[in-house]
Amino acid sequence: MTYPWQPAPPPPPRPAGPPLREPIGHHSDLRVLRSAYRWQRRTATLTALGYFTLFLVLSASAPGVMTRTVAGTVPAGLLLALIQVPVTWLAIALYEYTARRHVDPLADRIRREAELDARRGALR
Length: 124
Fold this sequence. Notes:
two-stranded antiparallel sheet, 2 strands, DUF485 domain-containing protein, membrane, DUF485, transmembrane, transmembrane helix
């Protein structure tokens, strides 16, 4: 506007199509994705570290339990140490399961919406 008494220019025409929504950066889906990913990390980490911490606490505070034989001549401490490998595999499987079931679908949906927003922004 050059002069204050001139009328304001008309707004640009809106493109035809579905109604516009908030851009992806202001969307609550990102908060949902962050919390799902945080829950996934905590679950898998606490599974592996929880068992390992239990093993360390038993080793330090209950040596009588750890030296007791379980199956013939196998001490309980060795058996609990060997169980650490399957528990780690369980933590990895739990991480993969929660990723495929909860986190990846959210991330895919947000990615598709971001691509739509980018295309809409390029059309304007």
